[in-house]
Every structure is written in structure tokens, then in C-alpha cells.
Write a structure and sequence with these properties.
With about 240 residues, the protein is α/β, with parallel strands linked by helices. It has one domain: Rossmann fold (3-Layer(aba) Sandwich), CATH 3.40.50.720. About 40% of the residues lie in helices and about 15% in strands. The chain is built from six helices and nine strands. A seven-stranded parallel beta sheet has the order 3-2-1-4-5-6-9, sandwiched between helices. The chain has a two-stranded parallel sheet with strand order 7-8. Helix 4 runs parallel beside helix 5.
Length: about 240
């Protein structure tokens, strides 16, 4: 156990992040999960039976000191860091329209969705150099297709660009970078957005399958972009 790989997953208390954490634990990883809600993190740990290889850290991914603290706590607890998964993100209900949308929540969404992954990269890069580890950014199909006036989509376009610029910056250190861009997924993401859309949706575990597959590629293999849609989602 002491030599098993270590992953840090932001937004790991529910949805895709929780599914990734569960699958990595099942694959023999030791896993740290972060989230703003300490209660939700405690509930997630209890649901899994408080496994020895799980570390829950409450904090805000848009606050650099807290992100650094999470990385430091992970390394202190487990002795290394092999993978970070920048999963935390949300859509503000008013972000669907730049023309007449409610601006409440825009700033928090941009900071969480764009600044958060950048801060995680900055805070973890030295630890990942030591293990020649991997960075996974959870983006969205919305970061590849345009929709009228959608600020959430703009944040995911930023994540798409961040993934490639990060790859170019860290390849010399042997660090891999993967962008996982999901289509519609049935998760708490839709809470406050009027409920899940009609049609087929992916599950959080199906997206976690892609994350874990990318993370567990052999040494020397770097999977860069994975777009995963439910069959029938056209855009």
C-alpha cells in the first residue's frame, strides 16, 4: 500500500469526481478528494466505509493557498503524488445568456472552472515532476462547440486551451496531460439548471472509466484529448 500510486481529485465528493475517486481506489490508488462542503466529503468517506487510502480535504479550488495546502497534505499523508484530476466546476444558471442572464454567480463560476485548474497545475507540478505523473482536466463538449452567449461554454473553451498549453509546458518533465470532455452526464451538475435534459445521458462512472483509462496508460504514452458523448447527442 505504501508504494501504491496517489491521486488528488478536486470536486471529489459527488458526481464525476466521486466516481473517479471510487474507481481509482478500486484500482489500488490512494486518493485525496477535495471539495467545499466538509459535510459532503464526510458523507462520501462514510459511504465508502472510511477506507485507509482515502483522504478528504475541505477547501476552495479557486484559492491558491488552499490548493497548495491540499497538495501538501496529500504528499504528507501518502508520500508522493502521481496524478491530479481537476474536476471541480459548475454552471451558473444565468450563464446561459450573456444578453439577459442573471450575473450572480458568474465570477464564482469563472474562478472555479478556469482559475481552479490552473492553480492546481501550479501547485502540483513539482510533486508531479518527481513521479513523472499525469494531469487530467475535466472539460466539456461545450469547450468544442459554440452555443449563443453561453458563458459556461466559454469557461470550458478556456479549459480546452489550458490543457494544450499545459501539455506544451510540462512535456519536458515527463508529465502527461489529458483533457476529458464529457457530453451530457447525469450528475448533480444539473441541480439548479432546471433538471436533467431529455434524451440519453452518460453516467458519472462512464466518464470515470475514461479518466482512469487515461491515467493508467503505460509509461511513455500520453493520451491528450478524449471527447465522450452519449450516443445520440449531436452537438
Amino acid at each position: 500500500m505504501s508504494d501504491s500510486p496517489v491521486a488528488l481529485v478536486t470536486g471529489g465528493g459527488s458526481g464525476i469526481g466521486a466516481a473517479v475517486a471510487r474507481q481509482l481506489l478500486g484500482a489500488g490508488y490512494r486518493v485525496a478528494v477535495t471539495g467545499r462542503s466538509e459535510e459532503r466529503l464526510r458523507g462520501f468517506a462514510a459511504e465508502l466505509g472510511e477506507p485507509e487510502g482515502l483522504l478528504a480535504i475541505a477547501g476552495d479550488t479557486a484559492e491558491y493557498a488552499q490548493v497548495c495546502g491540499a497538495v501538501e497534505a496529500t504528499v504528507a499523508a501518502f508520500g508522493r503524488l502521481d496524478t491530479v484530476v481537476a474536476n471541480a466546476g459548475f454552471a451558473s444558471p444565468g450563464a446561459r445568456s450573456l444578453v439577459d442572464g442573471d450575473t450572480d454567480g458568474w465570477a464564482e463560476m469563472v474562478l472555479t472552472n478556469v482559475l481552479g485548474p490552473a492553480l492546481l497545475i501550479r501547485a502540483s507540478v513539482d510533486a508531479l515532476k518527481a513521479t513523472r505523473g499525469r494531469i487530467v482536466l475535466v472539460g466539456s463538449v461545450a469547450g468544442f462547440v459554440h452555443s449563443p452567449g453561453n458563458l459556461y461554454g466559454a469557461t470550458k473553451w478556456a479549459v480546452t486551451g489550458l490543457a494544450e498549453s499545459t501539455r506544451l509546458a510540462v512535456a519536458e518533465f515527463g508529465i502527461g496531460v489529458t483533457l476529458i470532455a464529457p457530453g451530457r452526464v447525469e450528475t448533480p451538475f444539473w441541480d439548479g439548471l432546471g433538471g436533467v435534459p431529455e434524451g440519453r445521458l452518460l453516467t458519472a462512472d462512464q466518464i470515470a472509466d475514461s479518466v482512469v483509462w487515461a491515467v493508467r496508460q503505460p509509461d511513455g504514452v500520453d493520451v491528450n484529448t478524449v471527447i465522450v458523448r452519449p450516443l445520440g447527442q449531436l452537438i
